[in-house]
């Protein structure tokens, strides 16, 4: 009878006691009833009891381990929708619209210059122009030693579609020339192969520059912009508007303004008979100013 009792005790010990993994003596394997995921953390202490996470990482300290937490950083935006899933940013701001939030972005304005080296980290200025040498880029300097012009252009890449070759660009329109308007109607012959159309530029980050992402055709063409309410529909034909406004001054036509304007910006302005417009020359992958005020 005694050997029956001894066998029962040994069997119970094998079932309930932790066992050692022969391949890794330092790893303790708890009984499956007390450690469902086999990560050597008892269920009652495991912040992800059904998914192995021996390190028990918990970024937002909400007692749900990162591997089973639908919102790792605790900013109330689910991981699969969060543009910074590992850094709390409930506002989800994304200045350069590259789907990486500003909070975890090294180059917020997307101009190819990291923020810690960028003299205008919140406004794209790939050339880093600094006319007065004060360390603040002309694009965001209230007193750059010259006046910012009406247009700045950033080339983003190229695309071929529907038999057409496009240069992808972000156009920045200065709101100071349209009375500080938050939105502008933009017309241009290079905006689409269908002819001049209306597009909407918006100052989404309230920095005084209205942005428009555009796919531009190769060629030379006028661009005009004018204040509009933010509900203007895009895609409407504006051929008449382009040519009517072709030589209409928008605040940058006077000689005094042109003389004070930063040279790189002035190069986009074409003037005739005292009236001025904006002019672009687009080749596949490149955009150059086509003004006569260099």
TrEMBL record:
BP-aspect Gene Ontology terms = cell adhesion
Do the record's keywords include ATP-binding?
Answer: no
Pfam families according to UniProt: TSP_3 (PF02412)
InterPro entries xrefs: Thrombospondin_3-like_rpt, Thrombospondin_3_rpt, TSP_type-3_rpt
The record, for SUPFAM superfamilies, names: TSP type-3 repeat (SSF103647)
Protein name as it appears in the record: Uncharacterized protein
Residue ranges for the region (Disordered) are 80-143
- What PROSITE patterns would the database entry show? TSP3 (PS51234)
The signal sequence is 1-21
């Amino acid at each position: 009878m005694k050997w029956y009792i001894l066998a029962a005790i040994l069997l119970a010990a094998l079932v309930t006691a932790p066992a050692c993994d022969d391949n890794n003596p330092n790893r303790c394997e708890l009984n499956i009833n007390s450690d469902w995921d086999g990560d050597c953390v008892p269920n009652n202490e495991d912040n992800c009891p059904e998914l192995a996470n021996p390190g028990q990482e918990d970024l937002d300290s909400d007692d749900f381990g990162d591997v089973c937490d639908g919102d790792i950083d605790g900013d109330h935006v689910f991981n699969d929708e969060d543009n910074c899933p590992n850094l709390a940013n409930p506002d989800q701001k994304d200045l350069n619209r590259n789907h990486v939030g500003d909070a975890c972005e090294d180059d917020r304005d997307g101009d190819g210059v990291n923020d810690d080296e960028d003299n205008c980290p919140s406004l794209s200025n790939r050339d880093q122009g600094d006319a007065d040498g004060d360390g603040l880029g002309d694009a965001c300097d209230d007193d750059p030693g010259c006046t910012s012009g009406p247009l700045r252009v950033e080339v983003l890449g190229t695309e071929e579609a529907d038999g057409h070759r496009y240069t992808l660009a972000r156009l920045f329109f200065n709101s100071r020339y349209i009375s500080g308007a938050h939105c502008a109607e933009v017309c241009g012959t290079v905006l689409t192969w269908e002819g001049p159309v209306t597009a909407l530029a918006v100052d989404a980050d309230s920095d005084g520059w209205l942005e428009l992402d555009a796919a531009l055709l190769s060629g030379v063409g006028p661009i005009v912009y004018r204040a509009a309410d933010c509900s203007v529909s895009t895609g409407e034909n504006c051929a008449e508007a382009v040519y009517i406004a072709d030589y209409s001054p928008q605040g940058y036509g006077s000689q005094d303004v042109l003389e004070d304007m930063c040279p790189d910006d002035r190069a986009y302005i074409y003037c005739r008979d005292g009236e001025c417009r904006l002019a672009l020359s687009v080749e596949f992958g490149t955009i150059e100013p086509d003004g006569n005020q260099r």
